[in-house]
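Thread: "does anyone have the structure for this chain?"

Original post by V.I.:
We have the sequence but no experimental structure in hand. Need at least a predicted one for the grant figures.
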Amino acid sequence: MKSHGSAGFNLMVRLRSSGRAFAWATPVFAEAAALGRSIAFAWTLGPDELGKAMMLALTVRLVEMASDLGVDRLLLQAPDGNSATLQSRLQGVLIARGVLTSLLIVAIAPVLAGSFADGPNTASYALLAFVPLLRGFVHLDYRRAERQRSYAKMAMVEAGATLAMTVCVLPAAWLTNDHRAMSLVLVTHAVAYTVLSHFVAHRQYRLCFDADTMVRSWCFGAPLLLNAILLFFTFYADRLIVAGAYDWATLALYGVALQLALIPAQIVGRAAASLVLPRLRQAFRDNCLAEVWQPIASFHLMLACAIVAGFAALAPSVIGVIYGAEFKPSGVLALALGCAAGFRILRTPYSQLAIASGRTGDPARANLFRAFALLPVGVFAFLGGPLTAIAAAAALGEAGATLRAIQLAKTHTQRLDLQEALV
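Reply from O.Q.:
Generated one for you, tokens below.
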């Protein structure tokens, strides 16, 4: 008969395994839903309207990434991250961020409407202001649970909001019959996300607007904020360039291929924030980083190679079948975008290593190399070059950023000699 201790140990193993499953399954579901959303819009609205809908989604991502101080990561990393006081103060930071970013969207809506011919109007952009405003009222208790590597609440919030968004895609497309459906879908997601965060919370929702915590959040998050802005340019700015230089249908073709290529990178990045970051943080404390790091780095390397090969081989035919012949990319375009995604996946653990060690500026330093790639992208687009040239420039930028991240990890790591682990 098994002892109580053995049974308890086995239960803990099962709980941790299910927790890891939640951490992987949730971003997979989110990216699958985003893919389904674009497929539904492609078939119901057509290439031109899908391109305009993508522009609305890009606007939300730009504002969110340009105001992201990493409050959730501060809650995970800080020694006092489990305290109710810090949580209430960080929730105050989120409110302030939500109000400011919503006002920013309203202010830039007329500018965006006038910048792209025959694109979304001012009202379509202004409606997006509800997204950051609503998300500012999120309850952070589900994030606090991740400190104990408990991911069930995170899964309920993120997967539940994604499900609500998915359900409203076709009704929104039917109601508007154009790109405005994207605005309705994004607002629905924000409502569901905020409501569910309160539903799963254990603590009572409290707000505290504390100047010291505002400063603390800024000091922690300013390098991450810079990195988030750079990430926007590395993730999305080439699509803005394509939108300005080509027509909406071309943006839809390029955007669909790029979205599919980056889905694995998005999943890996979100899972790493939940799984890899806590492990590395604990490894620094226990002085056992070398033995923890090697399997993490090796896993991401194998995954990156698999994504490059798989996307290059399968993407053209798969996209042509799922989206329609007008969305089918060339084999060279698929290979270039697959390489870009592969290098981004390879860079993911180095970004988490930098955050875990407190060197939050390193990801931004690495991503500067990716941002530099926008210069040839702009030139190629201005000259009317092929999309393959734009994708190749993006892939070279990702390669440069990844090599820089590896170099920074080798030369700036503190508290431990990581030379053996990183070679």
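V.I.: this helps a lot. The chain has two domains: 15-209, 233-423.
O.Q.: and The two ends are 47 Å apart (CA to CA).
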